[in-house]
Amino acid sequence: MRRIAFILAFCTNAATATTVYQCADARGNKVFSQHPCGVDFKKVDVSPTAPSGISSDEELYMYNASLRTVSRGMTARHAKLAWGEPTKINRSNYTGTVKEQWIYRRGSASTQYLYFKNGILTGWSEN
Question: CA 33, 70, 114 angle in degrees (round to 5)?
Answer without folding.
Answer: 55
